[in-house]
Amino acid sequence: MLGQLLYPDEMPKKLVILGVEALDVDSFNAGLSPKVEQSIPDIIGTIKEELGN
């Protein structure tokens, strides 16, 4: 909202935020969990769709 007030001509008309919900926030491991790794193609597809719109 602040960006729209200060720079209305420079801000995008649409902002899309994508995220991945953490299943376990108490453990930390290097790399991706299998579930997150499996979701990467879907997330990439969603990003491509959004960029195409």
List the helices and strands and how they pair.
Blueprint lengths: L1 H5 L27 H19 L1
Structure description:
The chain has 53 residues and is mainly alpha-helical. It has one domain. It contains 2 helices and no strands. The longest helix has 19 residues. The chain is elongated and about 40 Å long. The model has no long low-confidence stretch (mean pLDDT 88).
State the gist of this model.
The protein has 53 residues and is an all-alpha fold.
* Strand content range: under 5%
Largest sheet data: none
Poorly predicted sequence stretches spanning 5 or more consecutive residues: none
Distinct helical segment count: 2
Rg for CA atoms: 16 Å
SSE string: HH
- Number of E-type strands: 0
Q: Overall mean pLDDT score?
A: 88
User: How far from one another are the termini?
Assistant: 22 Å
Tally of separate domains: 1
Shape verdict = elongated
> How much helical structure, as a percent, in the residues?
40-55%
Strand-pairing-aware structural class = mainly alpha
